[in-house]
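job 3f2a | input accepted
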Amino acid sequence: MSLNYKSLLIALAAFLWATDSLLRLPLTRELSAATIVMLEHLLAMVIVVPWLFKFWPNIKKLTARQWWGIGFVAVLASALATMAFTASFKYVSPSVSILLQKMQPLVTFAVASLWLRESWPRHFWRYAAIALAGGYLISFPALIPDLRLYSNGAMGVGLALLAAALWGSATVVGRSLLRDLPPNFLTTMRFAVALPFLVGWWFVGGGAAADLANLNWRDIFYVTIIMIGPGFGAMWIYYKGLSVTRASVSAILELAWPLAAVVLNWVFLQQTLNYVQLLGGVILIFAATKLSLWSRQR
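job 3f2a | predicted structure (298 res):
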């Protein structure tokens, strides 16, 4: 099986995703998750606004069902999931949050079976059980769960799993919308619809004034780099590579994301994992890759 050199763009995008926590973790020490995510979307509007004018005829033709789907993707995936993922950094290592995102295929298959009437993949339950076992080891390396919200990172685990569930669900709804809508249009609407919700959440949350007092040019610089690099930049590079890459190869190349993230977080943030968590990460990545591979080949 030959490897197109352009396929390496997927690995490059995965590496850019891995750098996200290097910038996001320092931001969480000064700003709330709502402020960080709102700023990301606000800066992204610099790119999105020209596309809104281009897609205005498409916007006027949207049906009520399509508006509902766009709202679902924008509010749950672009806004709430990103806030939950960001907030989880305050309670657990970013490496734990990132590894737990590999639980998304389980949610995707479960929702797809209900929303799109898709059949379960062969051996789904076997790999689902393996993935859950890996996720458990990552979350509770002492093997005995501590469910007190602010003890031993249980809150962070819950937020990371919430983000995985929301992103996994949004993948199914997005797939349904892409039957009739161009990908660029859906991406534009995702950011445009999410921003008003985030602004409202930001004001209602009550921490807006405090965050504005703490906001500095370094924070704005970090958010800008996140938006350009791990955000829009990585997404554009990823789809460029995906367009010329076989499903089996892309699933393997994407492993660069969690693997590189663990190494970078270990080296630059001193966010370490113990041997039980590393074993759980290997188990989870193996099972999730098998499920993702089946989905893409289909």
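job 3f2a | The mean pLDDT is 85.
job 3f2a | closed
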